Amino acid sequence: MTAPNLSTLWARTLIDELLAGGLEQFVIAPGSRSTPLTVATAEADGATVHTHLDERSAGFYALGYGKRSGEPAALISTSGTGAVNFHPAVVEANQSRTPLVVLSADRPAELHDSGANQTIDQHDLYGDASRFSRTLPTPDARPRTIRSLRSTVARAVTATRSPKAGPAHLNVPLRK
Fold it and tell me: pTM, whole model, 2 decimals?
């Protein structure tokens, strides 16, 4: 797979693995930092994309899909408060055992604690409401790192469908 930059490659790989795991529905609350994820989803064969400008609405739309179908939707947000606004839907997914995969775009580690706009600590953002939570490494094209990304995404999808279904959270640091 080729891409114009590392963030694009990372996003395409991540979305490709979600599709390989059986996800078809992608609910996007767009923002600047999540652009690689949004574009990768829009270009992916087999992805049905729903765009919501309000993060809370997007969260509950994805939750409703999971409740109706029994399958997880991928819920994508930009960094900072965009991801925080998914919290009520994540808690409801946990309580109702509804599958859901949350992808929160994030600033890379070097921009944390620097006063950069929309930078909050998103690691383990949803606490114990999430069945699986990981902050991914920043994009890297080495084959071993790509394999690790695919493995982590597959584990997140599996966690949403376990006997105790519920939400999984992948925090995705991306450089511009």
Answer: 0.93
Q: Which helix (DSSP H) or strand (DSSP E) does residue 74 occupy?
A: strand 74-77
Query: pLDDT digit string (tens) for 61-96?
Result: 999 999 999 999 999 998 878 899 999 999 999 999
Name the nearest CA neighbour of 8 among 170, 172, 133, 124: 172
Give the closest residue to 156 by CA, choosing from 75, 36, 91: 75
Q: Cβ contacts of residue 147 below 8 Å, gap of 6+? A: none
Q: Is 107 in contact with 116 (CB distance < 8 Å)?
A: yes
Question: Residue 120, SS3?
Answer: coil
CA R_g for the chain: 14
Query: What is the DSSP code (8-state) at residue 28?
Result: E
Closest C-alpha among 59, 70, 176, 53 to residue 125 = 59
- The answer to whether 36 and 9 are in contact (CB under 8 A) is no
How far is Cα 142 from Cα 63, in angstroms, rounded to an integer? 35
Return d(Cα 103, Cα 168) in angstroms, integer: 9
Going edge to edge, which strands form the sheet with 25-29? 48-51, 25-29, 74-77, 100-106, 167-173, 132-135
Which position has the token pair 């706009």?
A: 117
